[in-house]
Amino acid sequence: MSATIDFYLAQAEKCTAEAETSPLTQVRDRNLRAAAAWQAMADKLLDAERLRAEKDRHAATAAQG
Fold first, then answer.
1. What angle is formed at CA 48 by the lines to CA 47 and CA 51, rounded to 5 degrees?
2. Which of 7, 10, 14, 23 gives a 20 to 30 Å CA spacing to 42?
3. Considering the chain, what is the average pLDDT of its residues?
4. Measured between alpha carbons, how far is residue 24 from residues 1, 19, 30, 36, 38 in Å?
5. Integer CA distances (angstroms), 8 to 19, 49, 50, 51, in order
6. CA 14 to CA 1: how far, in whole Å?
7. Are 31 and 21 in contact (CB under 8 A)?
8. CA atoms of 8 and 49, how far apart (whole Å)
């Protein structure tokens, strides 16, 4: 997993934790939206890395014969 994905996931966890501890509804909602955005970025990057790895495997298989 890349450092960027780790960063995105850490930010999502941080925002979720802040949302859980906030007594203010607007702050909690803002943090939950931010957590969802960070998670979406991590998911998108994970999907891209999976697709790239699959493409590389297919290319290696085709090159071998």
1. 85
2. 23
3. 95
4. 35, 9, 10, 18, 21
5. 16, 14, 17, 19
6. 19
7. no
8. 14
C-alpha distances out from residue 27 to 11, 14, 18, 65, Å: 16, 13, 9, 58
CB–CB of 12/42 below 8 Å? yes
Residue 45 in tokens: 């990057």
Compute CA distances 19 → 23, 41, 46, whole Å.
8, 19, 25
CA atoms within 13 A of residue 27's CA, in its CB half-sphere = 8
| CA distance between the termini of the chain | 30
